[in-house]
Amino acid sequence: MTNSLTNIQRWLSDPTITKLIEVAIGMVIIAIVFRFISKSLPRYIQDSDTRYRTRKAINFIGYIIMLLFALFVFNDRLGQFTVIFGVVGAGIAFALQEVIGSFAGWVAISLGQFYKPGDRVQLGGIMGDVIDISILRTTLMECGDWVKADLYNGRIVRIANSFVFKEPVYNYSADFAFLWDEITVPVKYGSQHKLAKEILEQVALEVTGEYIPLAKKQWHKMTNKYLIEDARIEPIVTLIANDNWMQFTIRYPVSYKQRRIKKDQLFTRILDEFENTNGKVMFASATFELVEAPTINVRLSDKNNNLNRS
Q1: Where are the alpha helices (DSSP H) in 74-185?
Q2: What is the Cα–Cα distance from 166 to 157, expressed in whole angstroms?
Q3: Is the CATH number 1.20.1090.10 carried by domain 178-277?
Q4: Residue 135: CB partners within 8 Å, gap ≥ 6?
Q5: 119-123, 140-144, 194-198, 303-307: segment of lowest average pLDDT
Q6: Which residues make up the CATH 2.30.30 domain(s) of the chain?
Q7: Could you tell me which CATH class the domain 119-171 is placed in?
Q8: Which residue, 177, 208, 299, 305, has fewest beta-carbon neighbours within 10 Å?
Q9: pLDDT of residue 84 exceeding 60
Q10: Ranges in the chain annotated CATH 3.30.70.100
């Protein structure tokens, strides 16, 4: 027992051990204080985006203060640790390549404007809304998969930040918060194609016209920022005549979060408008006609009976 106490006293008398204990205790206290601030202060902020950024800023400041505290405690021994850090750092860098890559990805995301919380992106083959960006991982609320039309499916996905260096990053809402979507409408031959086109143009403008002013404004900024053509924003209707029907295609701008809703409104209005034409414009559909097989009469002759009779 006496030897154990002696060893503990000798161990605690080592200045390096003492400083390590001071650093550990100090970091725990700093972590508790900043965790309390992170949970208390943001609740008084109404705007969700500002609240999220405030919480992230508080956590980041806490990490910086922990690092500064450790440097302050060991300021007289940093020279002795330089060689050790150099040797150990090489091994750590090799063993933690993915972690280092994710940290570098976080720096690139923060400074390079790849995406920000609230953006809809496709990253690592997964599409969803960015709900959090940490030092190592990006958290997405996933869209699609078994749920169509870019709606949430309920899964939360965490992707390593290093993916920004490995795969393309598709951002649906960065500089231009709209998409061009298309629907096709088959119209039966014999219908008045000019009237059909007028109806489709009118419906597309009424349903999606609310997006045009803001989309034009954002697209104008895009043409000033990037080398890109001045594309048409207004809905456009085109016609292709194939073997079965006249196929009209409506191309229109839509908010990346409203694709399914607007598509439903478009088809509903088109059906109503076509019905109001009293047969002048009709939807086409594929029909299959089954032809009845002809009747086959088979007559059998009994040769044996004929031979017996003769």
Answers
A1: 78-95, 97-112, 163-166
A2: 18
A3: no
A4: 102, 103, 106, 161
A5: 303-307
A6: 119-171
A7: mainly beta
A8: 299
A9: no
A10: 178-277
